[in-house]
């Protein structure tokens, strides 16, 4: 046995010595910070520290960020709040109970700095620092501009916890690290928009319009986006902007198309649908200015705000996207092509559809109705939900109406709709068809990465008792899946027969009623829409 090894000193005592030195260093840093004079900090940092109690400072900051009504700002506020919630829950359930460290002794802290109400929980790690770092990191992951504005405040909150004597420096560092980790964990579950860039389609030809000359933009005033209209005027001073009420959208789009080199639209998805129909008929490229609540189409083609679309218009950058088409034939028999889980491989054909109706997006002639959809079309409970939401939205607002409508529809004693597929008829709670395949990463809502794939994303929720669990199972499942409750397939066309007259159908947020036979297909690459193209390296 070697005499160089001292067996009287256990290994854990050696590790304990290292830990003691780190704790001693931590105490010296705390005393240095507590005894140091910080000009101007006495009236500021204690108040800032108190304002962050229970996350109130960050909830207020999130509300202020979201109030700017920018989609990116709203996402940043939501991501910051979610990150804070995860960090706070982790600290209070695991962190504080794992290492029961006592709070610093306040003898060296001037009385003017000390908080009036001292915290009674353990010291390690700092919950305030975790919340501050989680919120700031979450915001920055979604918006660097807002992140740079929030970061100094978060750093000041973390510093205030040492300044007021309620935490050691190591408590603050550990809390900040846990908070930042929580923000990245949220990003793992719900990726940021920058991580989900849509697939780049081959560029389409569209006229470049310097300062917007030749662009006529029709604005739905019901969207209530005066800030975006001002930004549009500033970026494209030669563009013509026509503001009108929803009832006049159809006529104004038609008049604008007759004198425009490119047609622009500002409004929600329903307004964009009407504009797309006019653009298709007149062979014009479409410039979409996001002006609604959700802006599904604009988001999926990569238009984040007014700046994006204005850059594309001036440069003449555009892509070609598919357009979904539906044809309803009244009073036809039950003979069908296509069935659940099957479809034809032939291309559905392109070209422009005939007809002049725009308001509801449907053309009618001799018992045949035709229309387009850019996002989704559905029969069943979702169409019922849209109808309920439209009834209540003017009274209680859009978001509240959506929640209220969902509860009413799921609780109502409705029977599934019946529809024919191939040689059999079956009950359905929902038939959903997306213009392009919807994908979901983590817990993020579904998005389309390719709007020119030539496919319909078809989801069916089979009829039966209790539609809620069936709808939830379908919502959580991805494309190309099947279960006893639902089926999901990708088709080029679909025909459904035997639809009861008066069945509600929703498409791009608009609502109508149909009956008879429904035929769905695609117009591949039919719509040219402005979108900034990625800058390639040298």
From TrEMBL:
<dbReference type="InterPro" id="IPR001206">
    <property type="entry name" value="Diacylglycerol_kinase_cat_dom"/>
</dbReference>
<dbReference type="Pfam" id="PF00781">
    <property type="entry name" value="DAGK_cat"/>
</dbReference>
<keyword id="KW-1003">Cell membrane</keyword>
<keyword id="KW-0812">Transmembrane</keyword>
<keyword id="KW-1133">Transmembrane helix</keyword>
<keyword id="KW-0472">Membrane</keyword>
<protein>
    <submittedName>
        <fullName>Phosphatase PAP2 family protein</fullName>
    </submittedName>
</protein>
<dbReference type="Pfam" id="PF01569">
    <property type="entry name" value="PAP2"/>
</dbReference>
<dbReference type="InterPro" id="IPR017438">
    <property type="entry name" value="ATP-NAD_kinase_N"/>
</dbReference>
<feature type="compositionally biased region" description="Gly residues">
    <location>
        <begin position="348"/>
        <end position="358"/>
    </location>
</feature>
<feature type="domain" description="DAGKc">
    <location>
        <begin position="210"/>
        <end position="330"/>
    </location>
</feature>
<dbReference type="GO" id="GO:0016301">
    <property type="term" value="F:kinase activity"/>
</dbReference>
<feature type="region of interest" description="Disordered">
    <location>
        <begin position="332"/>
        <end position="358"/>
    </location>
</feature>
<dbReference type="GO" id="GO:0016787">
    <property type="term" value="F:hydrolase activity"/>
</dbReference>
<keyword id="KW-0378">Hydrolase</keyword>
<dbReference type="InterPro" id="IPR036938">
    <property type="entry name" value="PAP2/HPO_sf"/>
</dbReference>
<dbReference type="GO" id="GO:0005886">
    <property type="term" value="C:plasma membrane"/>
</dbReference>
<dbReference type="InterPro" id="IPR000326">
    <property type="entry name" value="PAP2/HPO"/>
</dbReference>
<dbReference type="InterPro" id="IPR016064">
    <property type="entry name" value="NAD/diacylglycerol_kinase_sf"/>
</dbReference>
């Amino acid at each position: 046995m070697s005499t160089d090894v001292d067996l009287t000193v256990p290994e854990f005592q050696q590790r304990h010595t290292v830990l003691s030195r780190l704790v001693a260093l931590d105490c010296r840093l705390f005393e240095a910070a507590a005894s140091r004079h910080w000009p101007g900090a006495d009236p500021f940092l204690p108040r800032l520290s108190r304002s962050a109690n229970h996350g109130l400072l960050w909830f207020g900051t999130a509300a202020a960020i979201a109030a700017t009504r920018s989609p990116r700002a709203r996402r940043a506020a939501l991501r910051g709040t979610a990150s804070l919630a995860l960090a706070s829950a982790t600290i209070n359930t695991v962190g504080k109970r794992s290492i029961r460290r006592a709070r610093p002794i306040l003898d060296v802290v001037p009385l003017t700095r000390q908080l009036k109400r001292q915290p009674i929980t353990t010291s390690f790690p700092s919950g305030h620092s975790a919340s501050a770092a989680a919120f700031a990191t979450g915001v920055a992951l979604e918006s660097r501009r807002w992140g740079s504005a929030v970061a100094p405040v978060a750093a000041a909150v973390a510093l205030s916890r040492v300044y007021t004597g309620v935490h050691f420096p190591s408590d603050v560092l550990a809390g900040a690290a846990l908070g930042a980790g929580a923000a990245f964990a949220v990003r793992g579950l719900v990726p940021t928009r920058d991580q989900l860039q849509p697939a780049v389609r081959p560029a389409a030809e569209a006229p470049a319009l310097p300062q917007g000359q030749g662009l006529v933009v029709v604005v739905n005033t019901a969207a209530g986006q005066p800030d975006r209209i001002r930004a549009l005027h500033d970026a494209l001073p030669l563009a013509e902007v026509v503001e009108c009420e929803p009832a006049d959208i159809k006529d104004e789009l038609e008049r604008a198309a007759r004198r425009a080199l490119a047609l622009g639209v500002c409004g929600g998805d329903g307004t964009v649908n009407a504009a797309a129909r006019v653009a298709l008929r007149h062979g014009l490229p479409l410039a979409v200015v996001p002006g609604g609540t959700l802006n599904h189409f604009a988001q999926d083609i990569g238009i984040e705000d007014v700046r994006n679309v204005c850059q594309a218009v001036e440069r003449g950058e555009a892509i070609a996207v598919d357009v979904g088409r539906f044809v309803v034939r009244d009073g036809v028999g039950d003979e069908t092509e296509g069935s659940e889980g099957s479809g034809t491989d032939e291309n559905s054909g392109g070209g422009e559809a005939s007809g002049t109706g725009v308001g509801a997006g449907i053309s009618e002639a001799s018992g045949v109705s035709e229309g387009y959809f850019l996002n989704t079309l559905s029969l069943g409970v979702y169409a019922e939900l849209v109808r309920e939401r439209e009834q209540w939205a003017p009274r209680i607002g859009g978001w509240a109406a959506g929640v209220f409508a969902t509860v009413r529809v799921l609780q109502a004693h409705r029977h599934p709709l019946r529809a024919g597929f191939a040689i059999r008829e079956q009950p359905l709670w929902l038939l959903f068809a997306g213009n392009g395949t919807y994908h979901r990463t983590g817990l993020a809502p579904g998005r389309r990465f390719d709007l020119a794939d030539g496919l319909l994303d078809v989801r069916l929720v089979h009829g039966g008792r209790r539609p809620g669990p069936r709808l939830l199972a379908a919502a959580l499942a991805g494309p190309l899946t099947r279960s006893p409750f639902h089926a999901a397939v990708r088709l080029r066309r679909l025909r459904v027969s035997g639809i009861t007259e008066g069945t509600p159908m929703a498409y791009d947020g608009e609502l109508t009623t149909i009956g008879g036979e429904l035929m769905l297909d695609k117009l591949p690459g039919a719509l040219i829409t402005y979108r900034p193209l990625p800058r390639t390296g040298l």
